From TrEMBL:
PANTHER family: BETA-GLUCOSIDASE
Family statement: Belongs to the glycosyl hydrolase 3 family.
An annotated GO BP: carbohydrate metabolic process
Natural source organism: Dyella soli
Domain of life: Bacteria
Renumbered residue ranges of the record's region Disordered: 715-734
Signal peptide: 1-26
Coiled-coil stretches: none
Protein's name in the database: Glycosyl hydrolase
């Protein structure tokens, strides 16, 4: 376009109306060459940085808090949409504002934030992970990205991937389970989905923020090899796959250094070894210094005027620059990275602004996610699926199933259309409110079983609930455990006497089905007494229809656990989370105990049998897995396996491939594929193996190395149900 006179169409406000007029814009392309979308994001960012004043640069490297509960002397920044964070635009150069919203389960909102606003809630992160289906994760990401864009946001603080080292972590429901390959693959796909909508996605919380107790003070202690092969491998895979525009460094310390001033994490690993081109933003209250943080790789301080001791990336950073403690090139690099991510996501070309949202289609995405990720944990004597058309009576019990389904709490909380179905539950303020999404299972079960007398008991009166169960053909008991950001559960127990409720109902009616609404594994002392258990976690938008579809068999459950299910806390690496119920948390948490052996690898290394293993889940049909065969394709190691549906119903199965390196005690998930099969159908699946799961991280050479020797590969429907292993000889080396 250089040199050519061009006529552009411009919108001019004439007497209050927007009129399209032709303007001679010969200067336009040359004046703002960074607007040329044919250039690479890096080149565009470089052109723009070169034009910026120091004040403009400093404007971009900090965000303002845009949320509720602010001190009166710090009003909402002008132009910000009430949410989580805001960076004002730089109009002189056409740089749009950054409007940042939480989070991974939908566009977060609370009545305190944007009264009357609503969004579509996705089911909890473990549901998406339990689908073992990258497409499900992508579609969910694209859905929430689309809603964010249509509400005017161009940054989603979404991409939670902290590994589940402890089932009591209050934020497990925002994450994707315990395995680096599964979590990395699915979160990477969710990020890709979000960014397909021209919204920057933020993978978080980097890193090892694997418990909430003491999150602002505690140091996660772990060796380099162990973290590279576990939590950091999950980040590595997700970042490769999803290419998120930003990374949020976490609150905690890692090996003694704050994550947001951790040179190892941000500089050496993320930016050097992984060549990450995007920017690192601090968590809200996660910044602790100017020079140290800047030099360690922090690029943007988030909401420091409210949450940090001071706004480090303003006067303190300018002073550090003047003293020569930070180089100007570092400040320019911060700005370059932020702008580069904005260009890469299409934030300039596709401005986020209010647009109509297809809530019906989006609810269908949420429902499909739950239908793909709900896990059938138990099904005695084929109690499920219910023959819904013929059912005469159903008792629906507990967990406000007459009103809705539970959501997890904290910054990721989404208000669905219709608001909170059970308002007023404690805590009403942070980390509350406790929210029930308005999708009542009772109503959906009535629709599912039109001839049945479907009655509800709230479960407060255990005897009344048991009496209702006794006179009904089946009892569906909903149980709940609320979990939330900023606190961990002290134990694995269900609260409020629900164990006694389930036991009493099961004693009254052996056809008792338990539906679990929870953030992570819970103890189930009544398990042997009930007929069936369906895990739906926090099940999100239109959950009631999905639950009814799963119970009736309209949809065949195909979710597989993305985490191991401990029998009790004594099986875990740490029997308790100190100070989870209050008091002063210790200075450190020792993740070297399990190291890289998170979850199922811990159970295997100790020879402990969990209640349910990683990868486990039942179906209404049966599958046959053929023998595993090795294959290589273009130097890529892969295996082939034939999976057949040997039952009478259509359904989906997950083929899971585990590798045991020579002399290793434990197997690691190295590849997987999900396949949908009609009755009698079979399909040969080709499954690529992730090389890093066959390798060890070599801390001397800073690279992945094969030990060399005989590798044992096995395939099956769960980590503990595998076919005959096949041996593979591989040479030692990178
Ligand atoms: C959370 C982040 C969140 C941020 C902004 C923090 O408390 O840890 O996950 O994105 O708040 O709301």
């Amino acid at each position: 376009m250089k040199g050519k006179a061009k006529t552009a169409l411009r919108c001019a406000i004439v007497m209050g109306l927007c009129t399209w007029i032709g303007v001679a814009a010969a200067q336009q392309p040359d004046a703002r060459p960074w607007n040329d979308s044919k250039l690479s994001p890096d080149a565009r960012a470089r052109l723009l940085v070169a034009q910026m004043t120091q004040d403009e640069k400093f404007q971009l490297i900090r965000s303002y808090y845009a949320g509720p509960d602010r001190p009166s002397d710090k009003p909402m920044p002008k132009g910000a949409i009430a949410s989580a964070g805001y960076v004002p635009p730089i109009e002189r150069l056409g740089i749009p504002a950054l409007e940042e919203s939480d989070a991974g389960l939908g566009v977060a909102s609370s009545d305190r934030m944007r009264p009357g606003d609503s969004a579509t809630p996705l089911p909890a992160g473990p549901v998406t992970a339990a689908s073992w289906d990258p497409q499900v994760a992508y579609r969910g990401g694209a859905m929430i990205g689309n809603e964010a864009h249509g509400k005017g946001f161009n940054v989603l603080l979404a991409g939670g991937i902290n590994l589940m080292r402890d089932p009591r972590n209050g934020r497990n429901f925002e994450y994707a389970g315990e395995d680096p390959l599964l979590a990395g693959t699915l979160v990477g796909e969710a990020i890709r989905g979000i960014q397909s909508q021209h919204v920057i996605s933020t993978i978080k919380h980097f890193a090892l923020n694997d418990q909430e107790t003491g999150r602002n003070t505690i140091s996660a202690q772990i060796g380099e090899k162990a973290m590279r092969e576990s939590d950091l491998l999950a980040f590595e895979i997700a970042i490769e796959r999803g290419k998120p525009g930003s990374v949020m460094c976490s609150y905690n310390k890692v090996n003694g250094d704050w994550a947001c001033e951790n040179d190892y994490l941000m500089n050496q690993l993320l930016k050097r070894d992984w060549a990450y081109p995007g920017f690192v933003m601090s968590d809200w209250g996660g910044a602790h210094s100017a020079a140290k943080a800047a030099n360690a790789g922090l690029d943007q301080e988030s909401a420091g005027e409210i949450f940090d001791k001071e706004v480090y990336f303003d006067a303190p950073l300018r002073q550090a620059l003047a003293r020569g403690e930070v180089k100007q090139s570092r400040v320019d690099d911060m700005v370059q990275r932020i702008l580069r991510s904005m260009f890469a996501a299409g934030v300039f070309e596709h401005p986020a602004r209010k647009a109509p949202i297809d809530s019906k289609a989006n609810l269908a995405v949420a429902r499909a996610t739950l239908e793909a990720g709900a896990v059938l944990l138990r099904n005695q004597d084929g109690l499920l699926p219910l023959d819904a058309a013929r059912l005469e009576s159903v008792a629906v019990i507990g967990a406000h199933a007459d009103k809705g389904v539970l959501a997890g709490g904290g910054s990721s909380l989404v208000t669905a259309m219709g608001g909170n179905a059970v308002p007023g539950l404690a805590p009403k303020t942070w980390p509350g409110p406790v929210m029930y999404h308005p999708y009542p299972p009772l109503k959906a079960i009535r629709t599912m079983a039109p001839k049945a007398n479907v009655q509800y008991a709230d479960g407060d009166d255990v005897a009344a609930a048991a009496a209702l169960a006794a006179k009904s053909q089946v009892a569906v008991v909903f149980v709940q455990k609320w979990s939330t950001e900023s606190v961990d559960a002290p134990d694995l127990a269900l609260p409020d006497g629900q164990d006694a409720l389930v036991a009493a109902v099961a004693a009254a009616n052996p056809h008792t089905i338990v539906v679990l609404e929870n953030g992570g594994p819970v103890a189930m002392p009544w398990l042997d007494q009930v007929g069936a258990v369906l895990e739906v976690w926090y099940p999100g938008g239109d959950a009631a229809s999905a639950i009814a579809n799963l119970l009736s068999g309209k949809v065949n459950p195909s979710g597989r656990l993305p985490m191991s299910w401990a029998r009790d806390a004594s099986q875990l690496p740490r029997a308790e989370i100190p100070a989870a119920t209050g008091g002063t948390p210790p200075d450190t948490v020792d993740y070297a105990i399990e190291g890289a052996d998170v979850g199922y690898r811990w159970f295997q290394s100790r020879g402990i049998k969990p209640l349910f293993p990683f990868g486990y889940g039942l179906s209404y049909t049966t599958f046959h897995h053929g023998p595993l065969r090795l294959a290589t394709h273009d130097g890529q190691l892969q295996v082939a396996v034939d999976v057949a549906n040997a039952g009478k119903r259509a359904g989906a199965e997950v083929a899971q491939v585990y590798v045991r390196p020579p002399a290793a005690k434990v197997r690691r998930l190295a590849g997987f594929a999900k396949v949908f099969l009609q009755p009698g159908e079979h399909r040969e699946l080709t499954i690529p193996l992730e090389k890093r799961l066959l390798s060890d991280f070599d801390t001397n050479g800073h690279r992945w190395l094969l030990r060399g020797g005989q590798y044992e590969l096995s395939e099956g429907p769960s980590s503990e149900d595998l076919g005959a292993p096949v041996s593979l000889a591989l040479p030692a080396g990178p």
